[in-house]
Amino acid sequence: MENVLITNQNKFTKLKEKIKENGVEKLYFLADFDRTLTKAFVGGKKIPSMISVLRDENYLAPNYPEKAKTLFEKYHAIEMDINIPSEEKSKLMKEWWTKHFELLIESNLSKQDLEQAVKSNNIVLRGGMLKFLNILKDNNIPLVILSSSGLGQEAISLYLGKKNLLSDNIHIISNSFEWNEEGRAISVKEPIIHTLNKKVGDYYIEAIKDKTNVILLGDSLSDIGMIRGFDCENIIKIGFLNEDINNNLERYREVYDIVITNDSSVEFINILLSEII
Fold it and tell me: 83: left (phi > 0), else alpha (psi -120 to 50), else beta?
């Protein structure tokens, strides 16, 4: 299939067979949200994350976009630099999100802002995603969305709910705000989740406690760390390499079993599901 690279065909085939043998009741999906379940580019424009909608579409205080862009330009380059050691990068990611949450609160972020942001035409699910989510729902396969999104759990829930896709098999772990009576954000709940510290083992999720097979979906090299702290028997790691393919492909092939390039659809995953269910 075009834009789909299988790192090791024999390994992938064996993993697929083992997961099929163990049955659908032992399977769950663990996924990032921005640029993994959603498209990385819309109309030729790069959409780094759901929070970028707030920055680019001017929902908050007049000086928010400029300050947010300054933070993004400084820290996003660090986030995407594969040569920076993880420990150093983790400290810088926490620094970024701490500063950004402080900026959001100073800029009077409200629940109404979240409701407006999730209506944006710049947040688009990846091709084949509706079919994917319906397959998981129909087969009661848990989908754990583990996201460091700055707009967090509330916004992801609002977005999926708006599309009638927030079913009982979906579990969202993300940053979350404390709100005052007027619906304004007054603080962010600890611990702050960022790209380098998100791991499913830090959270108890009843729906997956007996699951031993995992299909992990991410768009950054650090997303493979989402499975840390959770014992599993078989795992298929699928990475979306959306840009700068020539420079990053080999590193992605080192850590992911499957690499899907060029912001492509999840049709390969839908076919995989049809083969193991």
Answer: alpha
